[in-house]
């Protein structure tokens, strides 16, 4: 029996959306190919990587992900790829040649890349939770993550409605300190920040909450991947909603605003 070995170059959310395929094929060893984002962007698309991706998926990102990845039962180990000595059976970076203008979420994109085209199977891949934890952190009913990118220029009024309903008192913010500061500045919320040292910590907070609110980010992909029952996604508006990588219209509990 061939031992599966998977490799990906990132970014964080892209990698999370590849995991249903990893699980479908029975799991195995997973390798992160470091420092490839700028090269891939230039070689495949002829443009520089966006500022927020350039230089990413480095050793620091690997360290940030490691405990989370190895918590998933179908990941035998998570290691840095040495392309000179490691044989790969499933190159997940193959999805990159198909995702440009792909109409829909990235789980379907990965499925198509690996010839998994049966509609029933694709529905199962995208709707069956592929992330799990036995250690949720139950601190607040609502967990929020809002990055500075992929958000509309004009603040959606729903943030003001939620603030006026005192939702900020029942919420905790996960993410970087500057993201928390920026979120409070643009929304007028006063919300507790829960510092996390790694991705597993972020995931445990999301898993312990009754509601997750966020924009297109790795935190959102975690909520979708665990099959969270109440997700509010602030979708990017610079392209049609059905073109968003996080668009899962058939998954119960996801609301887009």
General description of the model:
The chain folds into two domains: 5-127, no CATH class; 142-256. Helix 1 crosses helix 4 (106-113), helix 1 (12-24) packs parallel to helix 9 and helix 3 (59-71) packs across helix 8 (199-207). Helices cover 34% and strands 15% of the residues. The longest helix is centred in the N-terminal third of the chain and has 13 residues, at 12-24. By secondary structure, the chain is α/β, with parallel strands linked by helices. The chain is globular and about 55 Å long. It has nine helices and ten strands.
Largest sheet: 6 strands, parallel
**Distance between the amino and carboxyl termini:** 47 Å
In percent, how helical is the residue content? 25-40%
Chain-averaged pLDDT:
94
The H/E string reads EHEHHEEHHEHEHEHEHEE
For this structure, the quaternary state is single chain
Percent strand equals 5-15%
Q: How many H/I helical runs?
A: 9
Strand line-up in the sheet with most strands: 7-6-5-8-9-10
The secondary structure category is alpha/beta
Poorly predicted runs of 5 or more residues = none
Radius of gyration from the alpha-carbon trace, in angstroms: 18 Å
Instruction: State the shape.
Output: globular
Give the total of beta strands: 10
Total individual domains: 2
């Amino acid at each position: 029996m061939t031992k599966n070995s998977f490799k990906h170059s990132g970014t964080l959310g892209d990698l999370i959306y590849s995991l249903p395929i990893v699980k479908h094929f029975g799991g195995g060893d997973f390798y992160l190919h470091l420092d490839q984002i700028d090269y891939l962007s230039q070689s495949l698309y002829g443009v520089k990587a966006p500022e927020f991706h350039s230089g990413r998926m480095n050793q620091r990102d690997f360290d940030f992900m490691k405990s989370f990845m190895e918590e998933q039962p179908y990941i035998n180990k998570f290691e840095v790829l040495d392309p000179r000595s490691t044989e790969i059976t499933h190159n997940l970076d193959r999805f990159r040649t198909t995702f440009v203008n792909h109409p829909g979420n990235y789980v379907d994109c990965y499925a198509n890349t690996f010839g998994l085209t049966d509609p029933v199977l694709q529905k199962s891949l995208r709707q069956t939770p592929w992330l799990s934890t036995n250690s949720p952190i139950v601190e607040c009913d609502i967990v929020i993550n809002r990055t500075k990118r992929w958000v509309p220029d004009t603040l959606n009024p729903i943030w003001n409605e939620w603030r006026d309903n005192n939702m900020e008192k029942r919420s905790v913010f996960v993410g970087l300190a500057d993201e928390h500061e920026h979120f409070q500045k643009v929304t007028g919320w006063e919300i507790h920040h829960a510092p996390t040292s790694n991705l597993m910590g972020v995931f445990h907070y999301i898993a312990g909450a009754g509601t997750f609110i966020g924009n297109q980010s790795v935190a959102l992909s975690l909520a979708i991947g665990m099959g969270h029952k109440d997700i509010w996604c602030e979708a990017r508006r610079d392209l049609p909603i059905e073109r968003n990588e996080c668009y899962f219209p058939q998954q119960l509990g996801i609301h887009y605003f």
